[in-house]
Amino acid sequence: MAVAILKIIVNIVGFYLAARFFPEITYDHPSALLWAGLVLGVVNVLVRPILVLLTLPIKILTFGLFTLVINTLMVLLTASLIGGLHIPGFWHAFAVAIFISILNMFFFK
């Protein structure tokens, strides 16, 4: 349970850092970041495993780098579900995914 809460906090911090670093990434209210962290955690539990399984051949061909694309798609899905979070496109979502991946690397490995 504590690990799940820490992952949600890491997601929130990743969204916040990306919004501070890239002015194009905006949020209407700080609660949008809280919801984004929570929704990203749920999306990663429910949708990501299916995508990872379906894209396994591509992941093997790219030596796992396609995982970044899957993470980006999860961020885009989260942004589309959260009304107050505005991520303008794929590359900005890619940056958010990188921020969250780096934070996860520091906290969970």
TrEMBL record:
Membrane spanning residue stretches: 5-22, 34-56, 63-83, 89-108
InterPro entries cross-referenced by the UniProt entry: Phage_holin_4_2 (IPR007165)
Keyword terms: Membrane, Transmembrane, Transmembrane helix
Pfam families: Phage_holin_4_2
UniProt xrefs under PANTHER family: SLR0284 PROTEIN (PTHR37309)
Name the UniProt record assigns to this protein: Putative membrane protein
